[in-house]
Amino acid sequence: MKLMILAAGRGTRMRHLTDQLPKPMLPVGGKPLLFHHLERAAQAGLSEVVINLAYRGEAIRAAVGDGRAFGLEVRYSDEGLHALETGGGIARALPLLGPGPFTVINGDVWTDYPLGQDRLPDGDLAHLVLVDNPAHHPEGDFQLDASGRVQNEGADRLTFAGIGIYHPDLFEGAPSGAFALASLLRPAMAAGHVSGTRHTGAWVDVGTPERLAALDRALKDPKRC
């Protein structure tokens, strides 16, 4: 199974840090955030990786190259000057991802979730990883019911971790240009074609300088390493 890392965003909430670097290249725990994903991909045996690029994408391409330094084969989906959001970015990369299911992870999260452990159940279009709601997102995103199906509505909502497995058919008939992945996921949920997993391990949305600094401190603590 191939892995796509979403790395095209501007990181507007971290402007003083991302004026010179794209957010996935910000250092945390002694190396760029993106490198954590690449190392975990290699450890999981996901040898083929696609990275989408937009804002300062040349910095990512220069640092990662063809991926051989990580034991990977890395290819790039270049979106030009303006990122295509989550849905549009994945849709643009479909020719590189192939005809089968593929895993996608947001480039601005850090997690110990074991990439490559899940598979897309037959007949499903998506399988989402959900986590307990962090303090900055208490309302959550989706419900995971007792049968392992993900619903757009319902109580006890969890937060989408920015990790999922998708079938290319999810993007059939998708609009061209920029659009959010959720616009495709919600109809698929209503049709009963989205399953999910609840991850109870470590997960951080590195969306602000404060959360980045806190993660950096935690990863540098020998008790966490």
Question: How would you characterize the overall build of this protein?
Answer:
Keywords: Nucleotidyltransferase, Transferase. It comes from Candidatus Macondimonas diazotrophica. This is Nucleotidyltransferase family protein. The protein has 225 residues and is of the alpha/beta class. The chain has a single domain (3-218), classed as Spore Coat Polysaccharide Biosynthesis Protein SpsA, Chain A (Alpha-Beta Complex). The protein is 25% helix and 26% strand. Strands 1, 4, 5, 6, 8, 9, 10, 11 and 12 form a 9-stranded mixed beta sheet that branches. A hairpin with a 2-residue loop joins strand 2 and strand 3.
Question: How far from one another are the termini?
Answer: 28 Å
Helical percent range?
A: 25-40%
Named CATH architecture: Alpha-Beta Complex
What is the mean pLDDT?
94
Total separate domains: 1
Instruction: Give, in order, the helices and strands.
Output: EHEEHEHEHEEEEEEHEEH
Total beta strands: 13
What integer value in Å does the Rg equal? 17 Å
Looking at the chains present, what oligomeric state does this protein adopt?
Answer: single chain
